[in-house]
Amino acid sequence: MSDTPTIELVDIYKSFGSTRVLEGVGLPLFRGEVHSLMGENGAGKSTLVKIMAGLHLPDKGAVRIGGQQVLFRSTAQAQQAGVSVIYQEPTLFRDLSVAENVFMHRQPKTSYGWIDYAEMNRVVSEHLRQLGVSLRPEDPVLGLSIADQQIVEIIKALTFDAKVLIMDEPTAALSLEEVKRLFQVVERLRAKGVAIMFVSHRLEEVFAISQRITVMRDGRVVGSGPMKEWTTEEVIRKMVGRSLEALYPKEKVEPGKVVLRVRGLRRAGVFRDISFEVRQGEIVGLAGLVGAGRSEVARAIFGIDPLDNGEVFIGERTLAKHTPQAAMAAGIGLVPEDRQQQGLVMEMAVVRNATLTVLHNVQRLGLVSKEKEREIAARWTQRMQLKGHIDEPANILSGGNQQKVVLAKWLATQPKLLIVDEPTRGVDVGAKSEVHRTLSQLAKDGLAIIMISSDLPEIMGMADRVLVMHEGKLTAELSRSEATEEAIMYAATGQVSSQGERKSKLPVTDNHDKGI
Amino acid sequence: MTKESKNTVDSHGWVSTLFRRRETSLVLLIAVLTGLTDALNPRFLSPQSLKDLMLNVSIIALLVLGQTVIILMRQIDLSISSIVGITAFLSGDLFVSHPGIPGIGVVLIAVLAGFLLGTVNAALIAWGKIPALITTLGTLYIFRGANYAWVHGRQINATNVPGSFLAIGTSTFAGVPILTWIVLVLLILFSIGLRQYRAGREYYAIGSNPNAAILAGINVSRRVATGFILSGAIAGLAGALWLARFGTVDATAAEGIELTVITSTVVGGVAITGGVGTVFGAVLGALLLSVFSSTLVFLRVPSFWQQAFQGAMLLVAIAADAYLAYRYALRSRVRWSHV
């Protein structure tokens, strides 16, 4: 490590309109170091990344490369200066081949000036081989998994001979295995002397990979220093400005009557022998690896997916029909995993989104009444402590606030049982605890909740009881006191896993869903 | 070209397979259609009617080259027919007002005029950020309106045009009209340009994912602008050739052909959503449409049916694209589940 950073941001200011996003941010990246940048959503990380990528110009402040001040007016200039950026969502040309994606705008040429496809494919297949990926350079990107697309992005950066590699939440859509593979690649690049910036929400990953950590809050750097000076608690405290205990504000509730009872649910090839009950005021955690069939059970209970066998009782009565309409009429609400695709109409105003489930209640003479709509939306969004105005479209809200709108939408139906699938995925730490506080409050008011989550601390912190699934079967039912990380993982991996190496120390943050 | 063919053999990529399939199926369709019509009416393959067919398709095919570049970028250029109209009359007017002007000079001036009109589109779309559909719909009317005002009821007749110039549209070389040769040479140049040069690949990149194109360092505005300028220049050339082909030009020349050109391009496998297709396929699309209308004429189908058939073919082509994409999605999902 030398004393001059490979790239350094000095006293950067940036505003969009009247919103000040960065206020005097300084950040050095050193040769051969992984520097992690942490912060809640909206802390200014993405803007910082975009300034380094040449997508935004800072209002004030300097970018220095090897001590020399530079000004990136375009991504091309940043790339030429050796700065490569890998974004969370791969930005690829799906109609073009892997090799073309890697070399777009800078394809090698033959002596007579044509694109040298043979050379292009050779270089890319060499990189693919080194990374141990079974892709062909001629393959079209259309149809590749997110992980494979990320590999294409990484190869792109490798062929740039990047001196600085910025990775903006690269692991958000990767499975555990893929994260490991990515980290091996990062480690190799670091050993080669590349300065790496790693932006992530996942503490365990940050602690596994970094030499230096910087934490941002509200557009400022609130802490920065070598890895050894940090603890998990310290990072979280700096990020949210409060301590870890406040993260899971679960209130003690005495469970009431049985609200939902399912017996012998089976769907061929997906799940079988699923029997459990949920009581008033209880939060039942449904844990397991991705692909264990948790969401599928939820969808079947709600009547979206068919059931081959089994019964669903709401209170004392069985469900009349196996349809979502019947489930809703019986008092079940389902908050799906994918907010943007299944939970919200992104372009529509919050007020519209929040009343979609209860349109029949907001009608007057067959037409939607604006006043009633506003009244209902306002009642539930206030209850959720939604930040932002109800007339704004949903897509400008942060992830946490979007989740609150989805919750409000289902609460407006005044359900007896709410099934929430991954309620805090992609939500920053601060908003996460607000969602948790809301769920906890709802349980206290007598709502029965089934919470599907891959986030073990969340399950352990929130659930009164934990059901664990493995390959379509319930493998454990644990009380709050029994539900330790080890016990859950033990059951979730089916005790003796056929793939022993997958029992990693990394918790189950397996976001990968292509195998479902 | 050995490299190219090796590539094709090596490539198992679905996209290239699809391209091959689309071009193969176009050729097959054209062959079947021709064979059937010839069986019913042997005059269909007479040298004269073949020559007519080639002449009919040539100008459309030429315009298809420019439109392919545009549609690859997920853009559209509706104004080409008006540019052809203006430049066709301009070419004739040059011969009238400057007797003895060399034909090549007229062609160059027509191309330059098309270039300038294309630049108007380019400026509005690339820098004015007005959607191409709106811009070129506007200029389609503006250019045509200006043409009417300027022409003011005049007409160019074959007698005003030198025979040597009209020969481009009538004489043949090796049995193929000169006009068609010009288009074939340009087809090959465009094909190489789009496949073998960075600029060519950038048109695909922009249509495939405009954001990624910016991130790759492509100057998208400039690249989009070049596309519209190129399309305009091609339309200028088509205008000069229109005069050579028909001899008679008034203010209505080439009215409405923009839709035939766009239909041909899409039928030829250039995805309206950008990023996919080749000029070769697009020209085959033009040929198929042209053969199809000739067939209808030879089979004495009333002419109003022709348009309906053209529309049906467009829908069939788009449906085929959607179906293949759907089948591919199914296949890749199966592949994933085995990973």
Q: What's the layout of helices and strands?
A:
The complex is a heterodimer of chains A (516) and B (339).
Chain A: E1 7-16, E2 19-29, E3 34-38, H1 45-53, E4 60-65, E5 68-70, H2 75-80, E6 83-86, H3 98-103, H4 117-130, H5 146-159, E7 164-168, H6 176-191, E8 195-199, H7 203-209, E9 212-217, E10 220-226, H8 232-240, E11 258-267, E12 271-279, E13 283-288, H9 294-301, E14 309-314, E15 317-318, H10 324-329, E16 332-335, H11 339-343, H12 350-354, E17 363-364, E18 367-368, H13 370-383, H14 399-411, E19 417-421, H15 429-444, E20 448-452, H16 456-462, E21 465-470, E22 473-479, H17 485-492
Parallel strand pairs in A: 3-8, 3-9, 6-7, 7-8, 13-20, 13-21, 16-19, 19-20
Antiparallel strand pairs in A: 1-2, 1-4, 4-5, 9-10, 11-12, 11-14, 14-15, 17-18, 21-22
Helix pairs in contact in A: 4-5, 13-14, 14-15
Chain B: H1 2-10, H2 14-40, H3 47-72, H4 80-97, H5 103-127, H6 132-151, H7 163-170, E1 172-173, E2 176-177, H8 178-196, H9 198-208, H10 210-215, H11 220-246, H12 257-267, H13 279-298, H14 303-337
Antiparallel strand pairs in B: 1-2
